[in-house]
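We modelled the chain as a single entity of 131 amino acids. Its sequence is:
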Amino acid sequence: MFKNANIDEILKTHPDLTAFRENFSAAEAIKTKIKKVLPQTIHHKLSIILATPQKLTIFADNQIIGAKVRQKCPSILRHIQDLDEGKLIESIDIKVAPINKSVTYAKRKRVLHTRGSRESIEQMRAKLNKT
């Protein structure tokens, strides 16, 4: 049906979803503006959601990123309110939502050493045994 269409094109075909499309477009414009304000190193560690027309929620991957965004919060709010889409936003809520890292890693029973590390260990053992 819409194999290579983007979400905006799909939403245009359903007139009953115009409010959702407008909210989606406003959120995209706000995300672009926020990414200009924040350092590029943390862009991929944030999720920005326009929950209501008055409230913007930013999810950070960890506490450090959340603290950096909180420091920039007044500046972010000013920049957003300069946009037509962001004039109604009164507050920014910053939450920390870590990425799911529940994937377990296979535990190894032994440490695999290189030839150099084995030689170093043998030298240390020899020195320890002398004393």
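As a brief sanity check on the tokenised model: The chain has a mean pLDDT of 81. The radius of gyration is 25 Å.
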